[in-house]
Amino acid sequence: MKQKGIPNFSGQRVWIIGASSGIGEACAQALIKVGAKVALSSRRVGRLNTLAALGNTEQSLVLPLDVTDDGQLKNGYQSILGTWGGVDLLLFVSGVYVPLRADNFDMDAAEQTIDANLLGPMRAVALVLPEMLKAHAGHIAIVGSVAGYSGLPKALAYGPSKAAIINFCETLYYDLLPQGVSVHMISPGFVATEATAQNDFEMPALISAQEAATEILSGIEKGEFDIHFPKRFSRFLKFLRILPYPIYFWIVRRFVKI
């Protein structure tokens, strides 16, 4: 049994959470260009308005919100229901990244990371699920990271938040496939964004946000569950997962020069 894709995004109702920059912004631009109806959410309303101006007046909704605020998410979803009657695709891209190692571990930063990167998507999914289950249709796409595959330096809170997203998506897929609702687990490698600009080390296989958006939308079109890229990097990290820990840690220390 294979889950459904979206062969044509024209006219599809898409809620992008985290649309104001990076991968989310690139996805929004691409979807607006092909005629999708796009609800744009993030905390930065000015950037959302700029994006909305790329399409016609009935094509976009600007719904500023903070993913850690359940009330704001609920109000945003109610606005979509009131205007369009539902959502065909929830694309959750929003996330925070604070580089953390054991010698500078900050519990406040860790809690904020888990709240935004794990509980944020869970809040959004909980909102859209009832209508999707009722219709036996819809798509849930969540951007995680290859950092969730296994432990990596400077990801003491970010990595666990993304590892949990992998587990969450796997369980969603298992539950929702028989119900006709598709789940897309998105695991990017290094993408040139405001978040990765914080890194002070060389990022292998770095790609642009536009390239990431192309990979994501292509995967959703085909109905793929496991959307990971760039393949030359993500496949290598998948391989590392199956190695014994002594070999894994030796390779990481040898090739990650931080």
Automatic annotation (TrEMBL):
Q: Which Gene3D superfamilies match?
A: NAD(P)-binding Rossmann-like Domain
Q: Which GO terms describe its molecular function?
A: oxidoreductase activity
SUPFAM superfamilies to which the protein is assigned, alphabetical: NAD(P)-binding Rossmann-fold domains
Please name one Pfam family that this protein belongs to. Answer: adh_short
A cellular component term from Gene Ontology for this protein is: membrane
InterPro entries, sorted: NAD(P)-bd_dom_sf, SDR_fam
| Keywords carried by this UniProt record | Oxidoreductase
> To which protein family does this belong?
Belongs to the short-chain dehydrogenases/reductases (SDR) family.
Q: What PANTHER family does UniProt report for this protein, alphabetically?
A: DEHYDROGENASE/REDUCTASE SDR FAMILY MEMBER 7B, DEHYDROGENASE_REDUCTASE SDR FAMILY MEMBER 7B
**Name listed for the protein in its UniProt record:** Short-chain dehydrogenase
Organism annotation:
Polynucleobacter campilacus
